[in-house]
Design a protein that fits this description.
The complex is a heterodimer of chains A (169) and B (168). Chain A is mainly α. Chain A contains 7 helices and 2 strands. The longest helix of chain A is centred in the middle third of the chain and has 29 residues, at 61-89. Chain B is 75% helix and 4% strand. Chain B has helices at 2-25, 31-56, 63-90, 92-102, 109-116, 119-131, 146-161, and strands at 135-137, 142-144. Chain B is elongated and about 65 Å long. The chains are: A mainly alpha (169), B mainly alpha (168). At the A-B interface, helix 1, helix 3, helix 4, helix 5 and helix 6 of A face helix 1, helix 3, helix 4, helix 5 and helix 6 of B.
């Protein structure tokens, strides 16, 4: 818990003081670098933290470490990283904020298309996704046609079969 | 402690099996609702098993700790799993890739823009958000509910705190 809070503070300070381009990459790298520190911190700290009663401490230190790593990983991958993803890329969230910031607090679909992301428009949002897919090597654009790369085909195979199994439209 | 962790992993695996099989067999209207009830049932079953095990093995003194550790472990696994699920279910990029792969004719950027950056896509998303009580519709368009306003406020603060810009 302490490490997760410390991580959140470190990320907040770095985002506020340094211009970070690949934020997700930076966040994940910092997290991975912090794992050995986390393990060292865990091993150096007394099991009872100096105040817990015996019934609240674990006898198996490896199991205790595994549990601590699980909580720390969940705090990062399922917590801080997801908050960042939502805040920076969330489609529905942006619609909520655009409606809130609209002059009379009300927008219809065409209004959202025009004013999405503080006036950039919905086309901007989708082009950003296209740029991401290009950067990740999932698609290429050849003679104005969008073509899947072998990596893109692999991903479609995996996600397509999972979506089909879940009967997602 | 080891039992608590093993039980959590086991019941999380059962949750995954039941959920995926349920979604495969039936057309589910509310995915988040169904997921919530299945994971809740798995956590209750996990709590019952851990309690029975500790009581029958004279380790009742560690009962509260074991239940907390076990259910917190399940919650952590759930938190790690859900982003993966939502990537499969809702990601615009994933849907775009599947769309490109499924077309026989060439896909241009303008076709993708017309399909995925259209008013229709936005309208459907807003209707879904209204269904989930983040928005409500009146004569002029969609407005925020209290729930929607709360989420918008919290994330506006977070965006400011992290200096993120409009995004989306």
């Amino acid at each position: 818990m302490g490490f997760t809070v410390a991580y959140a503070i470190a990320i907040t300070l770095s985002f506020r003081t340094v211009e970070v381009r690949e934020r997700m990459l930076v966040m994940t790298t910092i997290f991975l670098l912090s794992v050995p520190l986390f393990i060292a911190g865990h091993l150096l700290t007394p099991l009872d933290l100096g105040f817990l009663s015996a019934s609240w401490t674990a006898e198996e230190s490896l199991v205790d470490l595994a549990f601590a790593l699980l909580v720390y990983s969940a705090g990062f991958f399922g917590g801080i990283l997801q908050l960042y993803n939502l805040a920076d890329r969330g489609f529905s969230l942006r619609i909520l904020i655009d409606i809130r910031e609209s002059p009379n607090g009300c927008l219809d679909a065409s209004g959202v298309v025009r004013s999405y992301s503080a006036g950039k428009g919905i086309g901007w949002m989708y082009k950003k996704r296209i740029d991401d897919m290009l950067t990740r090597g999932l698609i290429v654009i050849e003679k104005e046609q969008v073509v899947l790369t072998p990596r893109g085909h692999k991903l479609v195979g995996l996600f397509g079969s999972l979506r089909a199994y879940l009967r997602l439209p | 402690m080891l039992l608590a962790l093993i039980s959590a992993v086991g019941f999380f695996a059962i949750f995954l099996l039941v959920k995926w099989q349920y979604f495969h067999q039936f057309r589910v209207e509310s995915h988040s609702g169904a997921t919530f009830w299945i994971v809740t049932a798995a956590m209750v079953a996990n709590t019952i098993l851990v309690t029975i095990w500790l009581m029958t093995h004279q380790e009742g003194g560690k009962l509260l700790q074991a239940i907390l550790v076990s259910n917190l472990s399940m919650a952590c696994l759930f938190v790690l799993y859900m982003p993966f699920y939502y990537t499969i279910a809702t990601s615009l990029s994933v849907r775009s890739l599947i769309f490109i792969a499924s077309r026989r004719e060439a896909t241009t950027l303008s076709v993708l823009l017309a399909t995925f950056a259209s008013e229709d896509i936005v309208r459907k998303r807003m209707q879904l958000m209204a269904h989930n009580r983040y928005l409500f519709k009146d004569d002029e368009g969609f407005r925020l509910t209290r729930r929607g306003l709360f989420v918008a406020r919290v994330f506006t603060c977070l965006k400011r705190l992290w200096s993120l810009g409009p995004g989306g």
